[in-house]
Amino acid sequence: MKLPIQSQNPDVGFQIAPMIDVVFVILVFFMALAAQIRIEQILQTKLPGVAVASTSTEFFDEQILQVAEDGEVTLNDEIYDTPDAHDLPQLTNTLGQLKASSDAAKTKLVVTLISHPDSAYERTIEVLNALAAAGVTNVTFTATEEEP
User: Under a CB-based contact definition with an 8 Å cutoff, are residues 88 and 73 in contact?
Assistant: First the structure.
């Protein structure tokens, strides 16, 4: 009787034993790695948070208000109202908004008033009235030196 000839690559089917070996090696690796990981509370890590200052720091918001020779009023280089407007409604509204935002931010609003030496005194008084109507109380004056 003749024996059947077997092929070179017999179909051995699905081999589960090597797969189980690989899974066990991976399992041992992760178990050994898990022993090295410390719990977050044990590490005593301090995360950034709110810093408490020993002394209070005063921040203030300074606005530059200028009165030109012709009566033109500018706040931070932006022109407000016309030179012939006496009640200055745009300036008063803007100053009121600045005061409200500085109060909300708990900062001090400081307005520096620079009046041209040749501007009308009444115009400076009108600007001061607008500041008072807006509730701005911290006003400083500066004098400009005349150029020779």
Answer: yes
Q: Which CATH class is domain 60-142?
A: alpha beta
Q: How does pLDDT run across 41-57, given as a tens digit for each residue? A: 666 767 676 666 566 55
pTM greater than 0.85 (yes/no):
no
In sequence order, the β-bridge partners of residue 110 are 62
Q: Are 144 and 114 in contact (CB under 8 A)?
A: yes
**Strands, E, within 3-147: which ranges?**
60-67, 73-75, 78-80, 108-115, 139-142
Report the candidate in 141, 134, 135, 133 with the shortest Cα–Cα distance to residue 67. 141
Q: Specify the range with the lowest mean pLDDT, choosing from 2-11, 31-40, 87-96, 123-132.
A: 2-11
> Are 91 and 75 contacting, i.e. CB atoms less than 8 angstroms apart?
yes
Enumerate the H helices of 14-120 as residue ranges.
17-36, 89-104
73-75 and 108-115 as β-strands: parallel, antiparallel, unpaired? unpaired
Query: Residue for token digits 């200055």?
Result: 88
Backbone angles phi, psi at 10, to 5 degrees: -70, 145
Contact (Cβ atoms closer than 8 angstroms) between residue 122 and residue 73: no
